[in-house]
Amino acid sequence: MIAFVIRRIIQAFIVIFIISVIGFAVKQSVGDPVREMTGISVSAEELQEFREKLGLNDPWYVQYVRFLGKAVQGDLGNSFFYKRPATDVILEKAPATLELVFVSSLIVILFSVPLGVFSAIRPNHFLSRFLMSGSIVGVSIPVFLTAIMMIYVFSVKLGWLPSFGRGELVMIGGWDSGLLTVDGWLHILMPSVALSSIMLPLFIRLIRAEMMEVLESEYIKFAWAKGLSNRRIWFVHAFKNTLLPVITVGGVQLGVTIAFTILTETVFQWQGLGFMFMEAVERSDSPLLVAYLMFVGIVMVVVNTIVDLIYGLVNPTIRISGASS
Amino acid sequence: MSSILNCIRADDVMATLLEVKDLVVKFALRGGDVTATNGVSFDLARGERLGLVGESGAGKSVTGFSIINLISQPGYIASGSVNFHGENLATMSAARLRTIRGNRISMIFQDPMMTLNPVLTIGTQMIETLMAHNLQMCKERARGIALEKLRKVHIPSPERRLEQYPHEFSGGMRQRIIIAIALLTDPELIIADEPTTALDVTIQAEIMDLLIELCETEGMGMILMLDTCRCRSGNWTLAVMYLRRTGY
Ligand SMILES: Nc1ncnc2c1ncn2[C@@H]1O[C@H](COP(=O)(O)OP(=O)(O)OP(=O)(O)O)[C@@H](O)[C@H]1O
Ligand SMILES: [Mg+2]
User: Fold this and answer.
1) Model confidence, pTM
2) Considering only Cβ atoms within 10 Å of each terminal Cβ, which end of chain B, N or C, has fewer?
3) Is the C-beta atom of B34 inside 6 A of ligand 1?
4) What is the ipTM of this complex?
């Protein structure tokens, strides 16, 4: 297990290194920092001198090492628009997005597991049939359409839920949390449901398909032959085996969820990273875009490493050999 | 497809344990029903050992599973009865059936590599069987019984082995463990469906000898499915299953 953990962490660092190369490449190719800083009323010599001073005439690998050295210290340059370090802006906006992703993952887990398991063990029940056809509809409706329809119904028509913003926030240790107030929860409800509207049906179907396959296996048949109770066979024998592929897919899908936050946050004017990203694109705020890319990349790597470690805990074949079977 | 069963009885004096009568098992496939067994009949007395011999596809596994009413979808028992102590397992309620499966009738499957759950320890898979059939059974006592049965099937250092997962065992060892699981509740009948065909030739005889020896010493009834007739010693009844034509 320890060898496995170490290997996963080394892999994580390799991926982070690759992300930093991509971030550097984007930084090099998007916009001229000197132009941005000095404006147009500067002579060519002065410009050249300035470039020399900033080290922009150095070979790319020297510049990369400088970029990496600064990035390790959390310095990714200043945002053109905010006139502040891009890292600070990212960290300020991150809690909103992380809470949104957290709540919608929670929704996905809390609903997909029981519904997926149910439709696997009762495939002919009308609820299972409804879930199967309903989930196809769910997957095929775009997130922004779901979001707009929800705003129309619950905010405009019924007036039950606020249509934008995060509501009342509580600051704890530099983290703006909306999860500690009722108002915050009312605000996060629609965005998180909208965000989970693609993943939830997908996971119900995935869990159902995996579980049905497991239920066909010889070891489940043997468990029946041992006279175990239905509950034990479904929730201990079958579910634990169902979990393995679901965990793997879950880690990958989290990345897709982060991509969808851009849409969701824009529709609900949710002041998080996705909203910031759209603004940064409009303002050509390249340091902020690079910082966003790096941040999301690192979050993805960390989450996927944790997911792999959980996988290792559930799958006993990993524990001993350090390789998956 | 029709399979006929010839039953050559050794002796029929003892009390009947199991009585299979005109068992017809069908599989509901898209193109219509397929008959897997067509009128299987045999009796088994207490402690009697029956060898069920037949070629591949003759319906040995289907017969074995239908005794404990555990035929996989889309299979079903179309007609016939399986009387165990006079009670018909084919029509019994699921709850009542559960008290018999794994408790009074154990089954050993064909492929030991596929039979054990890969994510649960051997200990868990043994202890749960005991606890499912005896509400008074505590974990400690179940563990003790599990250790005793593992010793019976010659698993070295069973205390340590109990904490291990199936992938840490060879095929032969897994089949020993499955035999130990089958013995846990001291059943009246063991159904062993070609328990050695999936194993190395070198350990086939060893496992078969162990199984037969344990059945004899414990006085259990047994139905042993085989692809070829290999029973040598002991008091065996032999039944032959074959397809299409009568032969032998
Ligand atoms: N899932 C299934 N779907 C359709 N038909 C099946 C299915 N399982 C078994 N059968 C039918 O039942 C017949 C008997 O199969 P069974 O598995 O009992 O054979 P067997 O005697 O155990 O053979 P083997 O020695 O290969 O294990 C087969 O010929 C097949 O036609
Ligand atoms: Mg078979």
Assistant:
1) 0.83
2) C
3) yes
4) 0.89
